[in-house]
Amino acid sequence: MSVAPGWYVDPADPETRRYWDGEGWIGAPIPVEATPPEGPPPPEPAPEPTSPASVSTPPGPDLPSAGTAPTTWPHGLSTGRPADGTPGWPGGQGQPGTPPTWPSGNPPQGPPPGWPYPTWPGRPPAPRPHGLPLASFGARLAARLIDFGVVVLLNALVNGWFVWRYLQELSAPLDEFWRRVQSQDRTTDPLPAAGDQAGALVVTILLIATALWLAYEVPSMAASGQTFGKRLLRVRAVPVEADAPLGFGRALRRWNTLGLPTLLWYCCGLGLLLQLIDALSPLFDHPLRQALHDKRAQTVVVQLPRTPDDRANPPGETS
After folding, report:
1. H helices then E strands: how many in the chain?
2. Using CA atoms in the order 283, 285, 289, 293, what is the torsion angle rounded to 10 degrees?
3. Do 28 and 175 fall within a single domain?
4. 119 lies in a domain?
């Protein structure tokens, strides 16, 4: 792509204009709203020469060794030693230590007008908190389902009698509803009311279920960052700032966002909807794949290595 010489908005500073001579930017910038002069800007005065004794040369990068291919510079220039071993700098001019000569008299300062600045090629690498890869959504979901099964079993043991009593309170409306379905009765009469204790039993069941979930998850997460399901799937929750135990306070904050909405199941399933949104939130968070409860507690979920060598040498790296 060849851009004709002229005054253009500087890609590096959109508030200014500079003159593009066809090969690079030259001259001093002017405000973007100012009327540019015709033709190129006047040449800048050459700097006053200084004696070598009064100027200290800063250490520079090591020159490539003989036999290495030259490195390509912008505008077709090259630096380093040619492959045949002849010492040289850009264009083969001068000796090592001689500054390069640019066609426009000035080194390039950004791409030509209309060209985008270079960005990261492709997708940036995935973060590795504390040297560990992030756990996949599939592994997290599988671990959560295992933990949900454990909590259901605990509720069957502790909450079973209250659930049975609640079903008895609902027997009258349920029986009448089933009779109408079987007999295809299209009456619009309301169903019989549930028993007087139905509301209290629902609240009791939800309180016990929430307490069992808290007792199952919070202590184990505080100590090791893992529940039974997370141990099976080899995933662990760790603080964002350090590879350390969560502690009881952080583990409780993390559980509150996901566990406390259980008490709202009584409100037309509102709590279940909030928990579903929280469970799916890692799919839409980048780059750390944090769920809403992770963001509140400032934690990330990582995949544990099978061996210590897996952590020391992640995929794509060698020791």
Report:
1. 9, 7
2. -100
3. no
4. no
Same domain for 187 and 268?
yes
Place of tokens 């060598």: 309
Structural domain tally of the chain? 2
Question: Residue 203: in which H helix or E strand, if any?
Answer: helix 198-224
DSSP for 73-98, please give it.
PGGG-EES--TT-----GGG-S-TTP
Query: Would you tell me how many other CB atoms lie within 10 Å of the CB of residue 304?
Result: 17
Count of residues for the chain? 319
pTM listed for this prediction? 0.58
What is the Cα–Cα distance from 109 to 11, expressed in whole angstroms?
A: 10
pLDDT for position 2: 62
- Separation of alpha carbons 22 and 194, rounded Å: 85
pLDDT of 42: 78
Structure token digits, residue 45: 């005065």
pLDDT at 81: 43
Same domain, yes or no, for 27 and 136?
Answer: no
Averages of pLDDT over runs of 10 residues in the chain (319 residues) are 76 82 82 82 70 53 48 42 44 48 54 61 77 94 96 95 92 86 84 87 94 96 96 96 93 95 87 93 92 95 80 47
Same domain, 135 and 30: no
* Containing structural domain, residue 28: 1-40+102-113
